[in-house]
Amino acid sequence: MSEKRKPLLGFMGKLPSGPALGNSGKTHCPSCMGLFQAPRLLPCLHTVCTTCLEQLEPFSVVDIRGGDSDTSSEGSLFQELKPPGLRPQTGILCPVCDAQVDLPVGGVKALTIDHLAMNDVMLESLCGEGQGLVCDLCSDRDVEKRCQTCKANLCHFCCQAHRRQKKTTYHTVVDLKDLKGYSRIGKAILCPAHPAEELRLFCELCDQPVCRDCVVGAHREHPCDFTSNVIHKHGDSVRELLKNTQPRVEALEKALAQVKETNGALQQRVEAVAADIRTFSEGYLKAIEEHRDKLLKQLEDIRAQQENSLQLQKAQLEQLLADMRTGVEFTEHLLTSGSDLEILITKGVVVERLTKLNQVEYSARPRVNDKICFSPQEKAGRCRGYEVYGAINTKEVDPAKCVLQGKDLHRAREKQTASFTLLCKDAAGESMGRGGDNIQVAVVPKDKKDSPVRTMVQDNKDGTYGVSYTPKEPGIYKVLVCVKEQHVQGSPFTVTVKKRHHSHPGVFHCCTFCSSGGQKTARCACGGTMPGGYLGCGHGHKGHPGRPHWSCCGKFTEKSECTWTGGQSTARSLLRTVAL
């Protein structure tokens, strides 16, 4: 097996234009933000300094994969596989993407070294006149030279010693400033198992780079070849995988762009809706404030109007009272102090005055009351285009003026809902025009006063209330309707509950012959027959009533209650099955 010296792709090759300036994403640690120091490649393909990884807080995980772990590392390349089973492991989280990283047995230092990042750091350091690079031999002084044969960075002292040694006398040594135009100046990658040997071979069986000592040792009889000979095969497989991955990247970028576009549209829509909400709320607030001002003005007008009415009534009552007192005082003085002649002389004037005063009509009750209330849930029309609520009501319901209405007021059927309407009015007999009054309704059987029927009261918000109930048994029921704990006009009253309405089991037809399709055995409750052995009625034949009727009971009204009692009559039992 001989090594074929083929140039590695891009190794020591000049850049097409200008020096290669590594960006911070390739040369700086995402954790400490400084240049990479011994960078390690994580399974998520993020690179972090070794010291930064060691500072992360580890956690315990359970590896159920046995010895096979997808965490690749140079330190784990030569470890023996352990039998499968549960074994405790230590893990960390990637400081970039929070992906879980299962640490190999050797810990952080057993993770794969990112040599590409080290090359980028070296290139960036060269662009800065070698600042940050130290000699690979003494690790003490700044770098000035580089041995192209050993791929080692040397200080001035170590460079002189390198040239004096017999084995390295003829090595090519160049100044760092002469390397600024190169794309790669990578150091030789040494075998972790044999640090003195460079990794130049690749074991196909173990799928890992090896050195010469590995070939004659742990990888004896394994198919191995120089890396320059197998790079094309493995590089092509990686390129093929990259080729299959790139469309997914484009698809993800497109999806991300759509998400961003949707997010932008969402933000714009949210801002537009927020503007609509602000406009609506500002307009609504102005409408509410305007409605509030109208209500307050209306309330002030009501106060002034009722106060004027009370003042006028007060003045009239005070004047009448003064006149009455004057008349009473004068009459009492006349009767107690006047002579008979004096009384007779002034009697006519006194009688006329007192009679006139007694004939003056006046109201003993105030013309207005203080029953002013605010109904916040009552619709008050529109203001500035907005529906507003809240109204001032000065009316007071008068139970004696309230009226009960409805066809089911005094009749009902068992197990059928009966209903009637309560119309509330004020003392003047006018409809209240609003709801909210305290209505109590009770429906009690006459013979079972301890078993009232459940009632429902529906406030129609217009001064009317719908009352419904469902009696379970026929009989006499007493209905009590109260407003503000006072009986309304016509309450209490009685309701006669009859038995449940019986529907017709037969058919409403013109004759049996037509409704039965010509069946001879079909009969009708009207008792009519036809010649030829027909037991039912027919047009113009004996017993036909001459107009449409029910076959079950013979009634002529289509919407009526059936009076058939369900006897065992053959005629009626047959008619129940007759249908068009």
TrEMBL record:
Spans traversing the lipid bilayer: none
Matches recorded under CDD domains: Bbox1_TRIM45_C-X, Bbox2_TRIM45_C-X, CC_brat-like, RING-HC_TRIM45_C-VII
Enzyme Commission identifier(s): 2.3.2.27
Keyword set, alphabetical order: Coiled coil, Metal-binding, Repeat, Zinc, Zinc-finger
Superkingdom assignment: Eukaryota
A Pfam short name: Filamin
Database matches in InterPro entries: Bbox_C (IPR003649), Filamin/ABP280_repeat-like (IPR017868), Filamin/ABP280_rpt (IPR001298), Ig-like_fold (IPR013783), Ig_E-set (IPR014756), TRIM45/56/19-like (IPR047153), Znf_B-box (IPR000315), Znf_RING (IPR001841)
Residue ranges annotated for the RING-type domain, each copy included: 29-98
Filamin repeat boundaries on the chain: 394-497
Gene3D superfamilies in the record: Classic Zinc Finger, Immunoglobulins, Zinc/RING finger domain, C3HC4 (zinc finger)
Coiled-coil region list: 249-323
GO cellular component terms attached to this protein's record: nucleoplasm
Molecular function per GO: ubiquitin protein ligase activity; zinc ion binding
Record bears the keyword Glycoprotein: no
Domain B box-type stretches: 130-176, 186-222
Name of the protein described by the UniProt record: RING-type E3 ubiquitin transferase
Organism for this UniProt entry: Myotis myotis
Taxonomic lineage: Eukaryota, Metazoa, Chordata, Craniata, Vertebrata
